[in-house]
Each structure stands twice: as structure tokens, then as C-alpha cells.
Amino acid sequence: MEYVKIVICVVVILFLASEARANIDPDRAYWNNRAEKAKKVTQESYRPETTKDVNKKTDPSTNTRRDLLKYTGPCKATNPIDECWRCDKDWAVDRMKLADCAMGFGWNATGGKGGKIYVVTDPSDDDVVNPKIGTLRHAVIQEEPLWIIFQNSMNIKLKEELIMTSHKTIDGRGAQIHIAEGAGFTLQFISNVIIHNIRIHDIKEANGGLIRDSVYHYGFRTKSDGDGISIFGSSNIWIDHVSMSNCKDGLIDAVQGSTAITVSNGHYTDHNDVMLFGASDNFSGDEKLQVTVAFNHYGQGLIQRMPRIRWGFAHVVNNDYTMWQMYAIGGSSKPTILSQGNRFYAPNDTRAKEVTSNSLISNQFEERNSN
């Protein structure tokens, strides 16, 4: 009898194991397929002659803007991006004009231009497998290009990471949109995304589990890191006029072969690891990483990585740095960093006045820059 029980137990275990494999393998195949498609787009988006994209629309704007420090007058566009749309009193009539305003390496990002407008009416995020119509999660998983706007101001607490699909614009203009106290954004193996005029802060780790990542698929996800925006193997991304602070991990991370990215007009405060482009000294696939960081304000309470880059190319242009606590711009693994027209207001602490940090030159920065 004992023998029979043992045999039955073994059979049950084998059956459960095979069922688990059956559930895992479709997920693996799904993400492998998505990764292959994303890799192809990455290769197409990479520009071997970086100078053309570095100078695209940025050349006239590399002067500093000290005269605007205390400006309180009427609308005044201060850079090529804002000149494109910001002082147009009828901007809400043609929201999609914004898609023509990107510059730098992410200039090709058009998001949901040409698609339908999706209005988010519900700030809840109760069901991450079958999200309700009208929620932000329901909007970002749709297959078609969408220009996503908001019915009114709202605070959205994401239950789990918000996994987006390609060809989406999240446009928070005309409302106060806070993504806070929950999980953050995940852009994994996708392309052509614009995130504009929202506030992301106090992002937490999330437990993971079953999460829908497209209309046709949901699968098991491990615990999320707590990044504000995580860009993983994705390209043609533009993040503009986004305010960020106090996330569990990074504010913006772009890793694993991501490229063609612009981060512009942002405001960042109260955080340690601000921006990480290239996550590993051992992953040379980030050699194709190209990112423009332009017209941002790095405010009070920031410590390091504004940005920190491995392998790739970063154009850091006309940003304002205010009293960092460790260093401003860092790099390792042979990156190229073109710092142009930035203003650095160093802290009073004599131990933290270095603008740049290169772990290949000085061992003292190894611990500071470790991922």
C-alpha cells in the first residue's frame, strides 16, 4: 500500500510539474518573440553617425538660461521643444501636434499620433489581469496606436507595474496627474512611446504575480524594483515635462539594448539614483544606447546619476544642476558623454563638488557607481 501511495504521489508531482512547464513555456515564447521584434527596431533606430542626431534642433539652444531664473511673466518658450507647442493657446484643439516636437535621439517618437484619443475616466487599478475600461492600465495594453488623455485631475496608485505596449502617448496636459504610492511604468521590448506632463513620485516595489501586458496576453511577473520609469530593450522613447521624486529604485532606467531616447524638460528632486542608462559593465549590448538628456532641472535632494551611463552615448545638454550630494554625471565601460551648455551649482560640501565621476579613473567611485 505504501508503494502505491508513493507511486501516486510521484505521478501527481510529475503532472503538476508538466502543468507548470506548460504555463511557463508560452510566457517564455511570448517574451522571446517580443524581444526579437524589439531588437530589430533597436537596430533600425541606432544612428552610427551620432553628430546628426546630437545637433538635431539642439544647436541654437545650448546657451544657458540664467536670465529665466526668476521669470514670472506670460508664457515664454525657452527651448525648441516648448517653442513647438507650449505658447499656443489652442494646443488642446490639436494635441497630437506635440508628436512633431521631439528632438535629440528620441526625435522619431510619435507615440499614438494618428490613432484614436482614449480618455482615462477612472483612477482605479483594482484588477491587473482584466483592467476596467476607462483606466490607464486598460488604455496602455491596447494593440492600436492611442493618444491617452485624462478626463480630470487624478491620483493613480498602480497595484502592479504598468506594462505598456507600443505606439502610445500618455498626455497629462490640462490636468494634474499623479502616479504615486504604488508601482511604476515598465516599457519592455516596445517602441514609439511618449510620456508627457505627469508627476511620478513615491513609487514602491510591487509583489508581482499575474499581470496583463497586452490585450491577448497576461503572465506571471516577479517583484518589480520600484523604478519610476523602467525602459527595457525599447527604443524611440520620449519622456517630456515629467516631474519625478522619491522612488524606491531609480527614477528613470534604460537598459538591455534600449536606444533612441530623449528625456527633456523634467524636474527631479529628493532621490538617490536618478537616471541609469546601461545597467551592467558586462552587457556590451548597450553599446548602441543613444540618449539625449536636455532642458531638465535637477533640483534639491538629489545624490547621484544625473545621468550615469555605461557603454553608450549620452548628449547631456542645457540642464540645470542644483547642489547634488555626491556627483552629477557619471560613467563607466567606455561610454561617450557630451556635456554641453549645462549649469552646475555645486553644493557647499567640499567632498561632493565633483561634477563628473568615472569609475575607471578613480577607485573611490567604484562604490558610488555600483549598480
UniProtKB/TrEMBL annotation:
Keyword hit for Lyase: yes
Gene3D superfamilies: Single-stranded right-handed beta-helix, Pectin lyase-like
Sample GO molecular function, one term: pectate lyase activity
Domain called Pectate lyase: residue spans: 153-350
Signal peptide span: 1-22
Pfam families named among the record's database cross-references: Pectate_lyase_4
SUPFAM superfamilies given in the database record: Pectin lyase-like
Protein name per UniProt: Pectate lyase
Organism: Lithospermum erythrorhizon
